[in-house]
């Protein structure tokens, strides 16, 4: 047969989950982004695609961890409840973030992971990471980078959103939420969730949101979504910083 008649075939992935991994929009940012198609075909049986509705739990604090999770779509909150029943939201995670990294050390999960929006995650078992990292040390390096990123996010949340004047904390929260924008809109936490995020009363959170609407910092087409006007938000943050 003449070479002119030979049509090169694209590598085919025969397992649906392997194809999902290959086509995933966050694959190049994910832990296994370095793997080629053949490697994805080999690990597909270990990875599960999980979908959650708002309010559903991904995992619970103190549960024995056997897997970490990569967020493909949506927003997940990490939260803890004190012995007195007080809930604190520690941070938010979105597209390409990895959750439950403590499971890679065989530890229990440190917080509850709960879906804020419709969420799609990939479950990555610890045993799979252990097996792959023997031949691919770059996976362990990537894992450490993700762990550091999670620590940095937690530190930022603690310093920027849990201390200082209430208005400053609310402005910083809106700036953080803008990172999760989808089609020009951001998910807007309920006032109770804002209270648990920012260590303020529900009444204070409601008053500040109403005030920022009047100032043109954001519009809220409904109770769970907002359009943030970035120029106005950054101006408000500069003015707030100048006064403090």
TrEMBL record:
Which molecular-function annotation in GO is an example for this chain? DNA binding
Keywords associated with the record: DNA-binding, Transcription, Transcription regulation
Family annotation (SUPFAM superfamilies) = cAMP-binding domain-like, Winged helix' DNA-binding domain
* Transmembrane portions of the chain: none
Q: Name one Pfam family in it.
A: cNMP_binding
Q: Boundaries of each Cyclic nucleotide-binding domain copy?
A: 31-105
Q: Which GO terms describe its cellular component?
A: cytosol
Q: Does the keyword Repressor apply?
A: no
Q: Does the keyword Transcription regulation apply?
A: yes
- Which ranges carry the HTH crp-type domain? 164-231
**What is the name listed in the Swiss-Prot or TrEMBL entry for this protein?**
Crp/Fnr family transcriptional regulator
Write down the species. Ideonella aquatica
């Amino acid at each position: 047969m003449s070479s002119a008649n030979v049509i090169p075939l694209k590598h085919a992935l025969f397992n649906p989950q392997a194809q999902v991994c290959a086509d995933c929009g966050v694959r190049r940012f994910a832990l296994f982004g370095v793997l080629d198609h053949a490697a994805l075909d080999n690990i597909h049986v270990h990875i599960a695609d999980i979908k959650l509705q708002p309010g559903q739990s991904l995992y619970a604090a103190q549960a024995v961890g056997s897997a970490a999770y990569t967020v493909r779509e949506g927003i997940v909150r990490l939260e803890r409840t004190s012995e007195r029943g007080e809930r604190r939201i520690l941070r938010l995670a979105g597209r390409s973030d990895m959750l439950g990294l403590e499971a890679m050390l065989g530890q229990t999960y440190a917080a509850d992971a709960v879906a804020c929006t419709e969420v799609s995650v990939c479950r990555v078992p610890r045993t799979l990471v252990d097996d792959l990292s023997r031949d691919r040390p770059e996976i362990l390096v990537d894992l450490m980078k993700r762990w550091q990123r999670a620590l940095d996010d937690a530190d930022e949340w603690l310093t920027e959103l849990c201390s200082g004047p209430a208005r400053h904390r609310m402005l910083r929260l809106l700036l953080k939420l803008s990172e999760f924008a989808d089609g020009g809109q951001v998910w807007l936490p309920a006032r109770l969730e804002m209270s648990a995020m920012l260590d303020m009363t529900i009444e204070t959170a409601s008053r500040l949101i109403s005030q920022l609407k009047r100032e043109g910092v954001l519009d809220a087409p409904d109770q769970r979504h907002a359009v943030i006007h970035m120029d106005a938000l950054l101006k408000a943050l500069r003015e707030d910083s100048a006064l403090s």
